[in-house]
Structure formats: C-alpha cells, structure tokens
Amino acid sequence: MRRNTLIRGVAGAVFGVLLASTSVNAQTVTVDPANATPDNVSTFSSLMAAIHSFQASGATTASSPGGVGVNHANVAPDVINITSTAMIDEVVRIDERPASGGYAILDEALAINGPGAVANSGVAVAPSAAANAIVASRDDGTNDDDNFEIRTNVNLTINNVTFVPSPTVPGAPAGNNDVVTVDRLSASAGSPSTVSFNSCIITSLNLGGTPLVNSKTDALADLSASIVATTTQLDDLMDFFPDAGEGMTCNLTDCVLAGTPPGTGRDGIVEASGYTATDGIHLNITSSVLSNCGRFAIQWGGTAASGGAVATEKTLTIGGTGANAGPVAGLGGPTIMTRCTDRAIQSFLSTAGRSRVTINNAIIADNTVRQISLSGSDELVMSNSLVSGPTPLVYQSSVAGDLISSITNSTINGATSLLGAQGTPTSTLTISDSILTTSGATTMAVFGTGDANAALSFTGYFAVAVGGSTNTTSGTGVFRASPAFVSTDPLSADFLDVRNTAYATANSTAGPLAGGANYVGGVAPASIALTAPATISFGSVDTGNSANDTTSVSVANSGGADGIVGLARTGANPGEFSTTPASVGIVPPAGLPVTVTFTPTLVQASTASLDITGDATQSVALDGTGQLPASIQDWVAF
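RE: above sequence
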C-alpha cells in the first residue's frame, strides 16, 4: 500500500472519530442536483444552499434559496456529500463578505466529498468520471470575474470534485476568469487556514461541453485541439492568492490541472501574493499532473521577506513517489508537469523577496520554451527528479551568499544548455549524485552577466565545456560519459533509465549513478582511442582560402555507448586553424571523423597546437603559411 494512501486512511479515520465523538453538533448533508424536493436542511439540490446552511444566518439571494444558517454553529467539521456526477451549474462561493452578495462568514471546518469519496467513507479515491462530482461554477460578475471562490479563513477539504467553467455563464469575454480561487481576504496572525484538494480535477470544457479530462491519464495526452472555444474567456485554472499577513496552506494531492488555451495569463496555478513571517504561505503539490497549460504550469510570484527563514515564510513544495517508475494512473506516483506552451515553473518573485522551492520525485519534461525558471531569491532543493526538454533550468539568486541551493540524485537533460544564470546570482548551487546531459557543446552556460556559482561532485557529464563562469567547480567523482538512456519519452516507465555500465559504481556511495531514474546496465562504456601524427603541415595556402585534412586524426570507440572527445586549439595562432567538430564531439561506437582546417588570414607562417582529449590527451602541432593569391602577387610585381 502506498504511503499517501495510508495517510489518507488515517486522516479519514481521525475525521470519522471526530464526527462520531461530536455527533450532536456535527452535520452531514447531501447534494443531488436532480433532487426535485430537497428539504434544504439535510438534503439539497444546490451546492451553494448546502454551503450556506453552515454559514451564519443572514440575507438569502436568488442564487442560494433556502438553507441559510440552519446548520450554523456546529463545533465539529461538517460534511457535504455530493452523491451524483450530474453537473452542478451555479454560482458557488465560500465568502466572508456579506456586502458582496449577502453571504455571511463561514466559521466552521468543512469537507465536500464527491461520489467516490462518499462511497469510501470520506477518503478520496483516484479521480475519474465515475468518482468525481462536477461543479461548473458560474461567474458572479464580481471579484475579478472568478468562478468557484474560497475567500475566507476556513479549513476546507475537497475530495473527488471536478471543477470546470460554467457552460452557461462562463465569465466576461475579457478573459479574467479563474476556475478556482483560494484566498483569505483578512489577516489573522496565529490562525492560518488550510485548504486541501484530494483527487480533484480543475480543467476546461471540451467541444462537447463536458470536462476536458477525467483522470491523470487523460491529462498526459495532447489536448490542444480539444479545448472549447469559450475557454478563451478563461484565465488561470487556480489562483492561490493570500495577501501579506494571511497565513494559508493550499494542498493538492493526486489532482489534475489541465487545459488552458495559449496566451498570456493562461496558467495552471498562479501564486502572486505576499508573505507572512508568522504563519507562512505554502503551496504543496503531491502526485499530481499539471499539463497542457497555455503558458506556465505554475507561476510563482508576488513578494516575500527580505530576511529570515525561507522555510517558514513562503514555500512551494512539489513531491510524489517513484519518479523512476513513470506515470501512475491511480493514487500516488510522481508529480508530472508537461506539454505547457511556455514552461513548467516560472518564478516572478521580487528580487527583494525569498522563498524555498522544493522538488522531489517529479517529472518535468517537454514544455516548449523552458522547464524551470527561478528568479528573485528562490532557494531550490531538488532531489530524485527528472527534468528534460529545452533549457531545463535557469537559476538566479540575488541574495549574497546565504542561500545554498542543491540538486541531488536527479537527471537534467536538454537539447540546449542545461543550466543558465541570469542577472548576478551570488549564492551557490551544489549538484551531486546527478547526471547532466545535452546534445549541445556546453553543459553549463551563463546568460548575460550572471555567474553560475555551481559546485559539482559525483556527477556524470555528457559534454566537455563548462562555459561562462569562473566559479563553476568540479569536485570528486565528476566524469564524462553518455548514460545511454533507454528512453527519452517522459511518459515511459523507462524514461531516462541508465544503461551505461560506466555508471555502475559512480555515485557517492560507490553504487549506481542513475539520477532519479533506474540503472539497468548492459551497455559497455565508451572507450576512446586517438590516432594522430605529431604534426600536420598545410604548406602554403592563399589567404581567404582553406586547406582541409580529413584523414590524419582518427577517433575510434570500442565501447557500446557514445563517448566524448574534446578539441581545443592553443599556441601562437589558434584562430588560423579550426576543427569539425568545433570543440566537442559525440563519438558513437562507429567512431567520429575529425577534419582539421587551415584558413589563413595573415600573410606569414602560423603555428598552433591541437589538444585532443578522449580517455587520454594527445597534442598535434599545426603549421601553415598564408600567402597572397597569385593575382595579387602579379599585381604587386607589376
């Protein structure tokens, strides 16, 4: 049994004991939109009326008939059981502002269960069309045109509910509508609230007017052609927006957030709030899927403190289990972020602020522009995770020296440079027991005036150059070898599994270095042999022309995995000579052809040294003489 299933079971048992021990005060009501004769005390056809039954008595509205206050003032957690999968299409708000529609403050702990959780004694089951209630919350025309709104200090648990925009009143055409909003509206030091979503789905509508996805598996497909046109009115799927001083935690476990159209502001989750040093603002995402977002899966922004403990002020925690085993259709498994048209995580945290971003057992892959961009002063702690795709990680810190970020037991794989530092970061990023691979020439790059400040140990490279930074250091156990991945498909169970036996004893405990994936072995490591003469002479060559040598340098590989050869030119006139490949070559078992070229720009004798690095280093002396073309010589002679 998975650990989070046990946690759910214990939580459900404790919740049940609470209800049993305070049965005089606790209330459980049911909601069925098909019920034509609800008593509006224990049975309801309206979810909003059921919610209002637990609120302080006050003015009712046309959108919430009956039930107002009838179950108010119960000291135990109250329960709303939705027994039907029929769509509930109405305004739904849990609000503390009577002035905004006559809804009085909710001051009770509340659980809302869909059919799957109802049948499982209040404990969530895997999200599905059969297990989840559907709440199509209407835009009420207020509060930034948001739909399902939680705007009060409430401890709320929601199990097996799917949230979509209303097909009848989706929102204003301007596109400012968030499907779900989580907020508090008032600060209360020492009284943080918690809102937890278990096995919930937040999505848009498909062309048939039903939820775009009904499961984790659905969300992993390409959904770009299936989003209904009215979704252009949609902004974010979830807006987590407590302001400064409003201590709040939002948990998403085994949830799915998928499907916004391309465009600015079309994100999965937006957190753009302040911070609270007393109680903290925390967003925790576990074993969930965030996919097919029109821009970012997560926008992490707003402000945070300029000093103090980052772990208590503002945190984003992404977790799960078994990233090495790939996607899980049911409960548990890794958190997966994929198929977003820009990037999975974008931090817009102000440079004066700070937060901690923790990523464990996550798969972040195949997002179009970048995978993770951290800015401001985000302290990154990543472990047991797999990141793959264009520009996997951009890391920036503006705090001098006191933020130590780390990557352990993870693989970062990209078609372009793996790590970039924008701006002027000065803190240290340590990387250990990890694998860095790229098909480009540079594993670690620095953008602009940044300095990567990266310290590596027990790390496998699949590139030679470490560019742009004077503060990138290589410690013990850093080596270059291709992992010979089994698969680069992030939805495969063998995603980034390592085959090269060179990795068999390469981690810090002399065990297999797999970087969050599995080590399967079976492929002999690369064995690079170099053949080259002591000197390559090109003789006299006209300036502006080139002479090529394609046979003198031979690079062979007798192993079963790709290897690497480095090519560097030094000496008096290195710019007069070039090689193909230019500075680093991937050497397959069939070997790698190397071309050395002399292209003189100077009318003189030129020399340089070509240093070729494989399993050993060999130097070749290069010489050639640049001369004027014959036509120019004749003209000068005339």
